[in-house]
Each structure stands twice: as structure tokens, then as C-alpha cells.
């Protein structure tokens, strides 16, 4: 079985080699051309669906950062929230009040239901928004509340939508320390899967499974699903509605594309996010994946489709057998290695020695296959996360096999219990975390770029100002001194650039005890003043975005989460007077 599985694991690589030999070139990397536009085609209107349950801690940062980073103009966020999740509802409503392209979609059922059910409610709210404003969204993109959307991802989806009905942007974990083994397992597996397996599916014309984030659907697909399923675009009973959507789209003859990994602005065009960093959370998430993809989808769709489709279904489901088998193999390998060392020291025969030449040859072949697989994975990881991170791939394999084995056993137990007691399978939600500010700076746009894109200054006027600004001086301050921009417009531009909300504060409504709740030296050092207590958060404001160390220091004086909002210099002086 190890021999069969080892050969099978190299088939996607063989497909790449076959393509290169046959066509004498590498597969097209359309992502590299996503910015090449002739300017003759108008951007399609894109609706971004973000289902939320207990996401009040991350959704604000997600929306503000992505609005600041995305280099595309015609898009709107629809945030699906539940009526019994007041903290997330409040956070979503605050975002909608601050950004004209953010809308709240309130689910009709108390949460948590399932991601698919939340997406269905978002779809209905989008229809109502279209009817109210007389417009139509041509493309729907799915994202989660912790996603970092690449600045060029929407442009890539929009361009490829001219030829494909579904476009999947690659998904990659955010780089972490080499010592974070659990998150490192996700880095390893996603690097290999997105580099080898997903493009291989594209090359052989099989179905492209949606990753659940970074997937762009043609509007016609969702409308077709809605008409067939009584307005339930995504099946609420499915644990992996994204995967099944990819299977359905291919079966109905719609065209699909997995956009190959390629760089733009020094980074790969991919959706980035944190995955579980603890074993328990990783097993919980992967149990849902295995249950939905390998068991529930098998029960619902069987082995239908062409022989190529059946092969990739096998690839997606074989983990039920190979995961426990691999863990057993690892245990035998470690035991055999320990006994071999002990036998050398004690000068005794090795307990695992085998005389049968066929078994010896089989072990050698499977060992070579395993080494080839590790080399392939290390090469993929090194390309994306660096050589130092790739050197730990052999060690993380053991950890990953343990997690996958536990997930397989958990999936089988959950599925058997569901069928034995005739209960529906339950959606297991993964806890989300959002990156620290340092991880967001890679996608930050220059203030000049934001000013030009937002129309606050003309191109020639901005270029002249950039030439005249003194060396080392702040561009925004220079523009204010030259009366080239108003305080309000500059505040909005900085808000977009930094990904923080800009909300005017009425100083008459701020309580003095709140404004004086932090030491005076904090205001002098960082230029921030507390102004409100809202939904268990301390709101601080300033005329400039404070450095990250400011928020670390504020933890010494308050146990409340701190949220920063930008105000104009004039508004800030009014609030500072309260001190």
C-alpha cells in the first residue's frame, strides 16, 4: 500500500513534466500578467462575501487593511452576521458607517448555523442591495474574516473572468517561526498542494475545488444554483460547501481556472491567512475537512464523472486509509531506528532485520519514493517560505502525520455517530486570528498613490508637490501647509492608506473621565487621547497613526482591547483640550 500511494503521490509531478516535454515550455503563469491591461475593458463589479460568527476581534482589522491594500475600484464587502452575536453585529455596523462599500447582511437564523447558510443569507441581502441601487454584481468572491487579500487578487480574478466562470486564487499561510510546527505543517502542505496538485488538475482538465477563500464565481453560476436549490446557493447541510461547489461547477460544464503561483510586488499573488497554531485546533479543522470531503461528499456524490474526475476524487479521499497507515509506518521507523542504534552499541543482531530479498527491495523502493516526495515538498516550501524553513520539512512530516491521523479517526467517529443516531453532521468552526501590524506593511500603499487613486489630487499637481516637498518632510504635512488639500480629505486618505477608520468626534459628547483614563505622558509621546468606551473596547484617537509599540504600552494601563481611530488635527486639538 505504501508503494501504491508513493507512486500515486508523484503522478501530479509527472503531469507537469509531461506538459513541459510535450509543449516545450512551462505552464502559463497567468498571474504574472494580471496587471497587463489595455485599458479598453471596464472593471466588473465584484461582491465579496465574508461570513462572520464571533469575529468581532478580527473583522475590523480585516476590512480596514484590505480596503487600504486592494488595487481595484469596483468592489463591495457584504458581511454576514448573526442576530445573537451582538459584538460582531456592532463591529460590522461601525464598518458600514465608515466605508461606503461595506454592507451588513443579517442572517435570519440565530448562529452558529453553517458557513453555507450564512453565505445564502448574504446572497439574499446582495439581491436586495442590487434592487435598491439599480446595479448588478458580475462576480462573487468568497473570503473569511481573517484573510489578507493580495492587492492584485481582484484584478487577477476580473481579468481571468473573461475566459473562465470560476477563478481560484492561490491560498498560502502567513510565514511564522520555524519552531511553530503545527502552523508549519500548513505551510508545507499548502506550498506543495498549490504548486503541484492544483496546477496538475488544471493541466489534465479535471475539476478545481474551491478553497473557500479567494474563489471568484461568475454571477450566472450562483443564479443557476439558486434556481435549482430553492434559493439555497450553497448547501447548508454540507461541511465543505466550497469543495462541493467546485465539483458541481465542473460537472455542469462551467470553465474553471486555478491561477498559478506568481509574484507581483515582491510577493506571491495569493490569499494569506493564519491557520491553527495548536494541535487541538488543527485536528478540529482537519476533522471537518476529512468528514466533508472524504465521507460526506462520497455519500452525496459517489464516484460520478470521467475517469480523471474519479482519480482526483480518489486523491482527495485516500487519506482515510493512508493517514493511519503513514502514522503506523512512522512509529515502526522510529522504533526500528532506535533498536538499530541499540544493536550497534550492544553488538547484537538488529531485531528488525529481514532476510527476504523481496521485502528488502520493497523497503528500498518505498524509501526512495518517500525521499523523492520530501525533496519535492522541500523545494516547494523553499520557493515560497525560504531555504531555512524548508530544512525542517522532514521533521514536520512526523508532526503532520500525527495530526492527519487523529483527524481521520475523528472524522470516522463523527460520521459513524451521525449515521448511528441519525443526526446531521455538525459544522466545526475554526477560531480566527488576524496578523499583527508588522505583517500587514508589505501590502501598504504610499500616501501619494492613495491620494491619486481617490481623486483628492490631480496627477500633475501631486507630482509637482512630490518634487517640492523638502527632504525628510512628511508629504501630508507639506500638502496642508501649501493649502493643496483640506484636513478632512487628508484624514480620509491617510485612513485608507493605514487601514484605520477616520471618524469625526464631537468633543462635547466625550466624558472627561474617559479622556483622562490614560497617563498624560502617553498623549505626549504617541499623540493619542481616549474618547469612548464601546462594546468592551477603549477607543483612542489621534491625528497620526501611532507606532505598534504604542499599543503594547497601553496594555500596561488597561485590560480592555484598544482600537485606534484617526481624526483631523483640528478635531484632535479639541479633544486634547479635555485633558
Topology readout:
Layout: H1 2-9, H2 11-23, E1 46-51, H3 59-69, E2 75-81, H4 86-98, E3 102-106, H5 115-133, E4 139-142, H6 153-160, E5 166-168, E6 171-173, H7 181-204, E7 215-218, H8 219-228, H9 241-251, E8 256-258, E9 263-264, E10 267-268, E11 271-273, H10 279-301, H11 307-317, H12 319-346, H13 357-385, H14 387-390, H15 393-420, H16 437-440, H17 447-454, H18 459-468, H19 475-481, H20 487-498, H21 512-515, H22 520-526, E12 529-534, E13 537-542, H23 548-554, E14 562-566, H24 569-576
Helix pairs in contact: 1-13, 2-7, 3-4, 3-20, 7-13, 7-15, 10-15, 12-15, 17-20
Query: What is the subunit arrangement here?
Result: single chain
At CATH's second level, what is the architecture of the domain at 28-34 and 41-180 and 187-273?
A: Alpha-Beta Complex
CATH superfamily grouping of the domain at 28-34 and 41-180 and 187-273: Spore Coat Polysaccharide Biosynthesis Protein SpsA, Chain A
Determine the strand fraction and express it as a percent band: 5-15%
Largest sheet: 7 strands, mixed
pLDDT averaged over residues: 87
Low-confidence stretches: none
So how many helices? 24
